[in-house]
Each structure stands twice: as C-alpha cells, then as structure tokens.
Specification:
Blueprint: E1 4-10, H1 14-24, E2 30-37, H2 44-57, E3 64-66, H3 80-83, H4 104-114, E4 119-123, H5 128-136, E5 144-150, H6 165-169, H7 171-178, E6 184-187, H8 189-192, E7 196-198, H9 199-206, H10 211-226, E8 234-236, H11 240-247, E9 252-256, E10 259-261, E11 272-274, E12 288-293, H12 295-312
Parallel strand pairs: 1-2, 1-4, 2-3, 4-5, 5-6, 6-12
Antiparallel strand pairs: 7-8, 9-12, 10-11
The structure holds beta-D-ribofuranose and calcium ion.
C-alpha cells in the first residue's frame, strides 16, 4: 500500500502526545512530512518544546515547525486544568532536538508544494495554522486530499455546554476551515468520547517496562484527573481518533452533513452547527462527521500501536 503523506498540526497536549506516538508507530502507513505546533492546550513555546521533546524521546528525525502564537482574533486560553502547567501533565521529556522552522505556515506550504503526491492534514489543535495556510497560500488547496480533524461536536461540548475546546479556542479559524469546501473528516466529541482507555489500560501502562508505554501511562494518569467520562472510569484520547481514522476507517459510523461554526460571543461561541436532520441526504462533498466507533477495536489497536512502538524505539 502506498504511504499517505501527512502533516500533523497539534498542541501537545496529553492526547496529542498519544496521537503522535500512534502515528510514529505506523511509519509503514505514513510518510510524516512534519509536525506543526499551534497555541492551544498551552502556549506556543510550551507545546513546541513538548513536540521537540517527544521527538527526542522517540529518537525521531521528523521535522518540527512552530506555528501561531494564538488565535486569529480571540485571547488565548490554555487548558492547564486538563493538561497541566507544562502541557503534558508535568512529564519531563529530554531536549536534544532543534526546531526545523519557526514558521509553520511557510513550512506547510513548502512541504505540500514540494511533495510528489497529495497531502493529508491532521489538525488536532485549534485551526489557526490551517486557516492561515489556506488563506495565505491558496495554491495548496489542490494538493490537499483530506483534513482529518479532531474538533467540534454535533451535540454538546466540553469547554462549554455547546463547544468543543479546539473549535472554541479559535472559532474564526475553524469557520474558515469548515467553510473552505476542502474534504473534511470530523472526529468530534460525538465519537471521541468513545475513543480512549479504561482505568485498567492506564494502570497496565504504568507498570510497563517499555519507556513509551510507561510514559503514555504517566501522562494519561494525569489526564484522568481532567478529562474523563462514564463516572471517571474512561478517558477519551480524542486526538488519536484523527490518526486512527486514516488507518482504520472501517471502525467508524458516519454521516455527511453541512457543518459551520458559530463565531458569536458567550454560549454559542465555537459551536459546530451541523445539520443532523435525518430526512436530508447530503452527498460526499459535505464533511464526513464520525458518529460512532467500535470502541473495543479502537482500544486494542491503540494499545497495540503504543506497545509496538516500545519494540521499535530503543
Ligand atoms: C481537544 O482539546 C484538547 O484539549 C485536546 O488535546 C483535544 O485536541 C479535545 O476537546
Ligand atoms: Ca490537541
């Protein structure tokens, strides 16, 4: 199978780290052109340090480029209550790797335009960089085959009653991206609240001898304090869904529907308004909204990827 060219745009972030490990575990499937960072869960300095630290930890030569310092218009509001002061639950990564570029937007433009084939973007943070990319360099649009996004929800939110964090953090950027007509797969809360781990999965990782699985256990143990569902028995690993979909789309139920973003103030801010009316049939040109997942298989495959990476990285 031909490898998919991807760029992961992220704000690590505990679940971002797990998603990056999962992608790194599948270099047979992905040609990772780079990792770009965006302010979200923590400041751009901290999330970039975390991306670089993780790549050092994985002995990886994947390029890291630093992106936007904050949302297009709004004030930035880091999610320290979920991801901790350093953004990765106080975990200390080694720091030997240096930044490839301090401009994620031109980095993405160059990587996309120089790539032989099409490129898939995997945004798992606020959509600031992606909005800037498509507005500043529209020539990339033809070369992007898909955006596999973690963000939004058709019903309810996590940061507010109506909004999911990534979209709420920069609603104007999200509006630009959802209105762009680019092919989008949306891993929103509808599905990511069932994409994750049980308490025992994390306890087992904590006991692991492998350095990557143990690190994931430590940061997810922290995550359990701030992001959990089902009376604290289950923690979503939201961002991993955007990667999982690319490898195992068959795990998911979905519907195509129009999605736009509420850019108002107060309660409506960042709400992804999706037309869920069942009597309307929308074709494939509309975003593919993931509505369900095979949780058992998702867990199994994510665990397999993480433990498998222990064997690959020494
Ligand atoms: C999203 O918000 C962030 O805190 C997580 O990293 C994830 O991307 C979940 O709403
Ligand atoms: Ca994230």
């Amino acid at each position: 199978m031909e490898k998919r060219n991807i760029i992961i745009d992220c704000d690590p972030g505990i679940d971002d780290v797990v998603a990056l490990c999962f992608a790194a575990a599948h270099l047979d499937k992905f040609n990772i052109l780079g990792i770009t960072t965006v302010a979200g869960n923590q400041s751009i300095e901290k999330v970039t340090e975390n991306a670089l630290g993780l790549m050092s930890f994985l002995n990886s030569d994947i390029k890291v480029a630093r992106g936007a310092k904050g949302p297009l218009i709004r004030e930035k509001r880091p999610a320290a209550h979920v991801h901790g002061e350093n953004g990765v639950g106080d975990y200390q990564f080694p720091h030997t790797k240096t930044l490839y570029s301090n401009n994620a937007i031109t980095f993405m433009r160059d990587a996309i335009m120089e790539c032989d084939g099409k490129v898939t973007l995997v945004p798992v943070g606020p959509l600031t960089n992606i909005a800037l990319l498509i507005k500043t360099f529209p020539e990339v649009i033809e070369k992007i085959d898909l955006l596999s996004i973690m963000g939004g929800a058709t019903f309810g939110g996590n940061i507010t009653a109506t909004a999911e964090f990534n979209v709420w953090a920069d609603p104007e950027a999200a509006r630009i991206v959802f209105d762009s007509k680019l092919p989008i797969v949306m891993s929103g809360l509808d599905v990511t609240h069932s994409c994750g781990f049980f308490r025992d999965d994390v306890n087992n990782m904590l006991k692991s001898e492998g350095k990557i699985s143990r690190m994931c256990g430590e940061i997810l143990n922290y995550y359990f304090k701030g992001d959990h569902v089902n009376n604290g028995t289950f923690t979503p690993v939201h961002d991993a869904s955007a990667i999982m979909y690319l490898i195992h789309p068959e795990l998911y139920a979905f519907r195509h529907m129009p999605v736009t973003v509420d850019c108002s103030e107060e309660l409506g801010r960042g709400n992804t308004i999706a037309d869920v009316r069942e009597w309307f049939e929308y074709d494939k040109t509309y975003p593919k909204v993931l509505t369900g997942v095979d949780l058992e298989k998702f867990r199994e495959l994510l665990l397999e990827g993480i433990y498998g990476l222990d064997e690959k990285v020494r």
